[in-house]
Amino acid sequence: MKHMTEEELIGYKEGVAAQRAVIAQHLADCEECRAELERIEAVLAALDTLSVPSPGDDYGRHVWQQIAPRLPERPARWWQERFAPKRLGTLAAVVALLVVAFLVGRITKHDRSGNDVATKEQIRERVLVVAVGDHLSRSEMFLVEISNAQPNPSSGKLVNISAEQRRAEDLLEENQLYRQTALQEGDRVMASTLDELERFLLDIANSPDEITPAQLERIRQKIKARGILFKVRVVGKELQERQKATTPAPAQNDSTRIERNKA
Amino acid sequence: MIRMQPSVENTQAIADSDAVAVERTLAGDRDAFRVLVERHSHNVFRLAYRMTRNRPDAEEIVQEAFLRAYQKLGKFEARANFGTWVYRIAANYAIDRMRQRKKEEARKVEPAIHDEAAENDPVSLVHDAAPTPERLAHNIELRKQMETALATLSHSERTAFVMRHWEGCAIEEIAQVLKSSSGAAKNTVFRAVQKLRLALQPFVGRGTQARAMGTES
User: Fold this and answer.
1) How would you classify the pairing of strands A210-211 and A159-160?
2) Which residues of chain B have pLDDT under 50?
3) Distance, C-alpha A233 to centroid of its chain
4) What is the DSSP letter of B163?
5) Which residues lie below 8 Å from residue B76, measured CB to CB, with a gap of 6+?
6) Segment B27-70, tens digit of pLDDT
7) How far apart are CA B153 and CA A61, in angstroms?
8) What is the pLDDT of residue B34?
9) In terms of CA atoms, which chain B residue is nearest residue A74?
10) Which residue in the set A43, A79, A179 is minimally distant from B197, CB to CB?
11) How far apart are CA A205 and CA A222, in angstroms?
12) How many Å lie between the alpha carbon of B184 and the closest alpha carbon of chain A?
């Protein structure tokens, strides 16, 4: 009889298992899995004994007294929120990126007729391709560094990966954004690769600050077994091709351009 | 799961009443927001305490969550549930607070001890009228181990575990807080339980033996 995995049993206990009825049926027939589930339940039951102190019956009133003097006269309407200085800062950064991309396009890429070929769609595509390409390139470098780490397993010394965790957290934020964009754009290959990368980055970000050489080895094996590095490289390469495709070949050299500008 | 589940009618009545209070607050009646604060403070405190295991931090999170909710109230969708919404704001802020706390503690030589549970009477863990010394010692040890095990979870894992196991939140709700896909959120819940199990099973097993020793006399 094929037994349930720990993941399936935890999923069942926490009510997030995909095939709940199948697991329930198996548990009814399998004493071993029932015993395993009981062990999981015992740990969770012990955790349930951790109490939460009562903040007191008039806690709500206390919170109100604390925050009332700090509340503005009226909550912001959605448009005030949207145009808050912080958001405007982000918006300005995005606009600046688009302007830079556009200007770079104007300065460096002209077609034979001398007209700018960078339509809005192309600029958008180019910015996205450059941004995701850059993200994948940094992710690839990160994966390579982790893959090439050589801790001494016999030393038993813990390896501090807090710096790697910070990098993983940074990459994670961008990755989530690009994965959602890829999903919206219907680019399933890109979305799937970014999803795999995200799981790996989450693993690193969620690891303890210090891990054993054996744990690091497991992470390296995971990169290898799932072929994450290979997939990131393939998609990165494909993006480079797309970048070339969205970038018209320069038809004139600088002197020609200067001549044309003079004219 | 320990989250208190009010009846469907009650939940609907609270949501309707919340919607009215939100509308009145947006119209300029600041006291209407007070109703929302007083109604939801306990739930938000429970979540914040479970995430941080630290009362001052939990209280700060509750205040900050309601301040942020007030500031963002214009963006709140009328059809949504205010309780769930403020809960999500609190969870997000709790993650930020835990990150900040971790950085602060990393700078200190001695790790900060904010083990409020340890201040509680360990006898409260024991339900028998006359705990044996073995049981008492075991419960003190188990409580210490549980606090340590929870502290070793990453912020995402602790958030996912607290929200799912103790608060009974939907996976989609957890995914929104973690800014991840539902699959990744589910995976985070699994990883959290797996880590807790690895850390605590030996002690829980010993507890069974201690229980036998404590009750057979």
Assistant:
1) antiparallel
2) 1-5, 110-129, 207-217
3) 17
4) I
5) B22, B69, B82, B85
6) 888 889 999 999 999 999 999 999 999 899 999 999 999 999 99
7) 33
8) 94
9) B28
10) A43
11) 15
12) 7
User: Which amino acid belongs to residue A42?
Assistant: A
Shortest CB distance from B67 goes to which of A50, A67, A206? A67
- Residue to mutate among B46, B71, B182, with most A CBs inside 10 A, is B71
**Gap between the Cα atoms of A36 and A109, Å rounded:** 65
For residue range A202-215, what is the model confidence (pLDDT) as tens digits?
Answer: 878 777 777 778 77
Q: Which of residues 109-138 of A touch B (CB under 8 A)?
A: none
Tokens standing for A157? Answer: 């010394």
User: pLDDT averaged over chain A?
Assistant: 76
Higher pLDDT, A64 or B205: A64
CA–CA distance, A246 with A236 (Å, rounded to integer): 15
3-class DSSP state of A9: helix
Which residues from chain B sit within 8 angstroms of residue A74, using beta carbons?
Answer: 26, 28, 30
- pLDDT attached to residue A123: 67
Inter-chain contacts counted by CB atoms under 8 A, chains A and B = 161
Average pLDDT over residues A161-185: 79
* Chain A residues touching B184 at Cβ < 8 A: 195, 198-199, 202
Task: Please provide the distance, in angstroms rounded to a whole number, between the alpha carbons at the two ends of chain B.
Answer: 33
Say whether B62 and A205 touch across the interface (CB within 8 A).
Answer: no
With CA atoms as reference, report the closest residue to A50 among B128, B5, B135, B125.
B125
Q: What is the pLDDT of residues B132-147, one digit of tens each?
A: 677 777 778 888 899 9
Chain A stretch 25-84, residues whose beta carbon is closer than 8 A to a beta carbon of chain B: 39-40, 42-44, 46-53, 55, 59-61, 63-64, 66-68, 70-81
